[in-house]
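hiii, so i know i said id send this last week but things got crazy w the move. better late than never?? heres the sequnce for the chain we talked about at the cafe, plus the structure i predicted for it. fair warning i was half asleep when i ran it
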Amino acid sequence: MNYREEAQFWLDALRKGTQQHRAALGYVDEYTKEGGLTLKDIGTTKAELEKCRVLGCKVNAQFWLDALRKGTQQHRAALGYVDEYTKEGGLTLKDIGTTKAELSSFKQVA
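okay and structure toks below
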């Protein structure tokens, strides 16, 4: 693949929502710069990349919330990740489909 195709590959992953959003954003940046491309050249904008970053945070927060609901043995770590990604994305608990009460119930198990 050439630089444009690589950048677009990672952009597509971001648009779908990926747990690897940090790496994908880095690859989009890397391949556009190395290829001498602009965001417009690959069909995106800074605003869209920001939305993709937030989506990635939401995907990650929901992944760890789901792990808690399924009974992960890593309660403290999972709660930390839910908190980390929620804050990083500027999300509310409602945005990720939970409440303080539900998160508190996981803390009692941890």
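btw The radius of gyration is 17 Å. thought thatd interest u
miss u guys!!
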